[in-house]
């Protein structure tokens, strides 16, 4: 069942952009490229990531993503991500938006909805509600979804024998459920999303993202 869309409300002078997608989609690369373009145009940009972005968030990131911390059940996992996000919004994202900055976030709420809601089977609506409460309904002005096939994503992130974290190492059917959830979220609110094929030319993706973001900027 599709999750009901809730349009973001521009409560602050800044602009909030989230990059979403499966592991190996190229989110960090495109977030950095957008930051470079905006800064070259004279914009003040804050680029951050989730989980993390704050001292407590980085500790929670290590706890939930690194191997060796024992078993973490799905509900605990969802709550850890939501706690990290609450701190991130309160301490970093909202203050930057209040200053009128452009905030670029590598992953945000949709990742929890997809990974814990669909991947772990907790329910998209339930995980969304948890995170809306944790963030006081802070939603991005636009979400860039880089759509990647799970097999392609695994090939990308294990190139040169790179190690996978606890979530990346889950089987492909887990990542397939995540991909489906991301696409479902985008289909429910198409005006809020820019969906791009992660396998397309890197520069073409950067250009498409930049063109979309320019529409939001004063």
Q: Can you describe what's shown?
A:
The N and C termini lie far apart (37 Å). Helix 2 runs antiparallel to helix 3. With 218 residues, this protein is an alpha/beta fold. The protein is globular and about 45 Å long. About 2% of the residues have low confidence. It has a single domain, classed as P-loop containing nucleotide triphosphate hydrolases (Rossmann fold, 3-Layer(aba) Sandwich), CATH 3.40.50.300. A 5-stranded parallel β-sheet has the order 2-3-1-4-5, with helices on both faces. It is built from 8 helices and 5 strands, in the order E-H-E-H-H-E-H-H-E-H-H-E-H. It is 51% helix and 13% strand.
Give me some keywords for this one.
Rossmann fold; single chain; alpha/beta; 218 residues
Q: What gap, in angstroms, lies between the N and C termini?
A: 37 Å
How many DSSP helices? 8
Instruction: State the CATH architecture.
Output: 3-Layer(aba) Sandwich
Look at the structure and give the mean pLDDT. 88
Helix and strand pattern? EHEHHEHHEHHEH
| CATH topology call | Rossmann fold
Large-scale geometry: globular
How do the strands of the widest beta sheet line up side by side? 2-3-1-4-5
Report the radius of gyration as a whole number of Å.
16 Å
CATH superfamily: P-loop containing nucleotide triphosphate hydrolases
Total number of β-strand segments?
5
Q: How many structural units, i.e. domains?
A: 1
Strand portion: 5-15%
Q: Helical amount among residues, as a percent range?
A: 40-55%
pLDDT under 50 segments (min length 5)?
A: 4-8
Derived structural class: alpha/beta
Most strands sheet: 5 strands, parallel
**CATH level 1 class label:** Alpha Beta
